[in-house]
Amino acid sequence: MTTIPTATAAARPTTLAELRESGWTSRTVKEELRRNLVARLESGEDLFPGVLGYESTVIPSIVHAILAGHDMLFLGEKGQAKTRLMRHLADFLDEAIPHLDLPGCPVHEDPFRPITSMAKRHLAETPDHEVRIAWWSREDRYAERLAPGTRFADVVGDIDPARLVGGTSLSAEEVLHFGIVPRMHRGIFAMNELPDLDESVQVGLFNVLEERDVQIRGHPVRFDLDLLLVFSANPTTYNRSGKVIPQLKDRIGSTIATHYPRDRDLGIAITRQEAGLDLGGDHPVVVPPFMEEILEQLSIEARKSRLVDQASGVSARFGAANWRTMVASARARAIRLGERPGVPRISDLAHLGASAIGKLELDPLGHGEMSERQLLDALVAAAIREVFSEYVDEHGLDEIAGVFSEGVRIEVGDMLPSSHYAERLETVPAAWEKAFEVNSAADPAVRASCAEFVLAGLWATERISRSERHGRIRYES
């Protein structure tokens, strides 16, 4: 394959004669993907930049599918980067490919292998030096649809009544209005949530997968369509009988199973990346490790809770939205109180309802009368308990709880200045010492965060109780 210079549009051939002289040759989409993938494997490039945690599981399956020339199904729960992976497939296309610059032609015709009658007539009747060539960019060669509400005419096509009234024969190719699939000839088409696609549309896609042809209202139109078809689906709905026609399932070459992060550190890295917040600037924020760990553990607890509908899953967007809310709360406090940097505390988690509720679907058989807010509070407590047990030596915790049993009360909150925490904990010096056990930093804002972590840990392990009201949290026996 001769590589055409693509640095500037001016360097590309603009007529068929120039294209022939350049040495450019046709390749199918799957051949193109395969060769470009091989080149990137040989160079050691990152194949899917920004996709974390799939290096030894999902990505090898995609590589094998491309090398095998398979259409693909990405099977996984929500928030597992299925759509991102599908979009990344376009990275393995050429930067741009030539096509006939033919007004009215419904597809981007390969100048050497046209599939429509219009293009074939044009090439037969026009000298090469007069046949105009345009270039189709990599970005425009990928298209996707969401299955719910998608009609047959949208995806495959339909008869154009205006052309029929205008005298075009029903048996003529020109009477057809092409849907998005035939229009993506020489590209990649992705269908999200395949099980929600109407059965008639599934049959149309089956024809494309099996015969690479288009059949519209019983009118067979044979086109040698060249494209990669990819789909996404949730395992529960995909495996449910009757949701996807067996013939279509059977024609999909590779099923790529995605998954949630396998460990908490990886989940934290993904959450930080997806949150996409700048922690610097005029109002910097420093996030203590235990606060990030609690937030990620919250997602882990949700993904294993019997009260959450696990068939729906808990998206990575759940963690990212919560992370942004936590940082925003810490930043708002720092701005109002004139503190620098802002440091998230346990009391900032009281604001997670705005970002978390709606992203958790309750299991209709498991939650009973529990509300989403109550479920979120229970999951936060479980996350704090898990992380607290990893940070703090159990020795001395009963001693701290004993001080509270003598009637001591401590009130903290998301708007309490960091400098006040040492004073508040004077009545429970052992708790202040535990805060140093968590993090020995001298910064008052970090120390305040550690102190709240210790108090919340005592509450989560049921050594003390707490009550919340108007942004204030009171800990007592």
What's the layout of helices and strands?
Elements: H1 16-22, H2 29-43, H3 58-68, E1 72-75, H4 82-88, E2 96-100, H5 117-125, E3 133-137, E4 142-146, H6 152-155, E5 157-159, H7 161-165, E6 176-178, H8 180-183, E7 187-192, H9 199-211, E8 214-216, E9 219-221, E10 227-233, H10 235-238, H11 246-251, E11 254-257, H12 264-275, H13 289-304, H14 316-337, H15 353-356, H16 372-391, H17 397-405, E12 410-413, H18 421-424, H19 429-438, H20 444-460, E13 465-469, E14 472-476
Parallel strand pairs: 1-10, 1-11, 4-7, 7-10
Antiparallel strand pairs: 2-3, 5-6, 8-9, 12-14, 13-14
Task: Outline the structure in words.
- A 5-stranded parallel β-sheet has the order 4-7-10-1-11. Strands 12-14-13 form a 3-stranded antiparallel β-sheet, covered by helices on one side. Strands 2-3 form a two-stranded antiparallel ribbon.
- The longest helix has 22 residues, at 316-337.
- Residues 1-7 have low confidence and may be disordered.
- Helix content is 42%, strand content 13%.
- It has helices at residues 16-22, 29-43, 58-68, 82-88, 117-125, 152-155, 161-165, 180-183, 199-211, 235-238, 246-251, 264-275, 289-304, 316-337, 353-356, 372-391, 397-405, 421-424, 429-438, 444-460; strands at 72-75, 96-100, 133-137, 142-146, 157-159, 176-178, 187-192, 214-216, 219-221, 227-233, 254-257, 410-413, 465-469, 472-476.
- It is an alpha/beta fold and 477 residues long.
- Strand 8 and strand 9 (219-221) form a beta hairpin.
- It has 2 domains: 9-257, 3-Layer(aba) Sandwich (Rossmann fold); 264-476.
- The protein is elongated.
